[in-house]
Specification:
With about 290 residues, this protein is α+β, with helices and mostly antiparallel strands. The protein has nine helices and ten strands. The strands form two sheets. The chain has a seven-stranded mixed beta sheet with strand order 4-5-8-7-6-9-10, sandwiched between helices. It starts with a strand and ends with a helix.
Length: about 290
């Protein structure tokens, strides 16, 4: 017998987890009865403790889809150098508004990242791999790993030198992961793992170039980094507010405490709490 819940079509889950924000108990449990070859509904709770928004169902992962004509358009516009925020506004306008779209801005961003990784010139990819191989030949403790797509194109690469691996043994209790760097010409997220030594100085503990910012990609990255560090997980990890990264940490580093970066919180705080005396009071208390 296998048990799944009805909010994720085609995805098997061993147990039901309530909705986190309201602890809603509504669910649909289905079992595959292999003896008779039928699916059976074993439990159904239809009562919700929150307002239902049927139009929001299209934003569930299983329902989101980028139409082919949208993919072609954003690839062409991206090659022309049009900023991503303008790309999203353009395709939303062609869909007669956000309410009629079947995707979110993150879907467009991830498709652009995948498209850019495929467009990486063979000379660039080969040159990078050759350099990493030379580094490993010069230092046996140099570590790198790559991921390729079904067509053999380079998707992601991770590397850490001997100093990074040795330093982690002494200062790996708490690490920071930042995926906000997009300074390379392919626009691929540059993602460093960072720690702090006994002098309060920043130390590098490995870095990667990624094709997108999905849970699957982050799981690959964390597993690769953990293998590089001899499967010694940190006690704590600090990141920005990224749902995909949070999911990956829960899956790959279940015993590691996950906290959000205070710098990012303070940066967003003024825009989230409005104006007036309440804002000044909160900002003063958070100093």
């Amino acid at each position: 017998m296998q048990q799944i819940d009805g909010d994720s079509v085609g995805a098997y889950k061993p147990r039901w987890r309530g909705e986190h924000s309201t602890n809603c108990k509504a669910l649909l449990l289905i079992r595959d009865d292999m003896l008779c070859g039928h699916w059976r509904i074993t439990r159904m709770v239809l009562k919700h403790n929150h307002v239902l928004r049927p139009r929001s169902v299209r934003f569930f992962r299983c329902h989101r889809k980028l139409p082919d004509f949208v993919k072609r358009q954003i690839e062409i516009n991206d090659r022309a150098g049009i900023p991503q925020k303008h790309l999203f506004r353009s395709v939303i306008a062609q869909s007669d508004g956000f309410d009629n779209s079947t995707y979110i801005e993150r879907d467009l961003y991830n498709h652009i990242m995948r498209s850019r990784s495929i467009q990486m010139a063979e000379g660039d990819a080969a040159g990078m791999l050759k350099y990493l191989q030379q580094c490993q030949e010069a230092s046996p403790d140099f570590f790198y790993n790559t991921e390729v797509d079904p067509n053999g194109h380079l998707k992601a690469v991770f590397w850490a030198d001997a100093h990074c691996r040795a330093t982690y043994k002494h200062f790996g209790d708490v690490i920071s992961f930042d995926n906000t760097y997009l300074t390379n010409k392919y626009g691929m997220p540059f993602s460093p793992f960072v720690g702090v030594n006994q002098h309060g100085q920043t130390i590098l503990l490995g870095c990667a170039l990624l094709p997108d910012e999905t849970t699957e990609t982050y799981c690959w990255l964390l597993k690769t980094w953990l293998s590089c560090m001899h499967n010694s997980a940190p006690k704590g990890i600090i990141t920005n507010q990224c749902g995909a990264m949070a999911n990956a940490i829960e899956q790959v580093l279940p015993s590691t405490r996950h906290r959000l970066c205070l710098w990012h919180i303070m940066k967003k705080l003024p825009t989230k709490i409005g104006q007036g005396a309440r804002r000044e009071h909160i900002l003063h208390r958070s100093q």
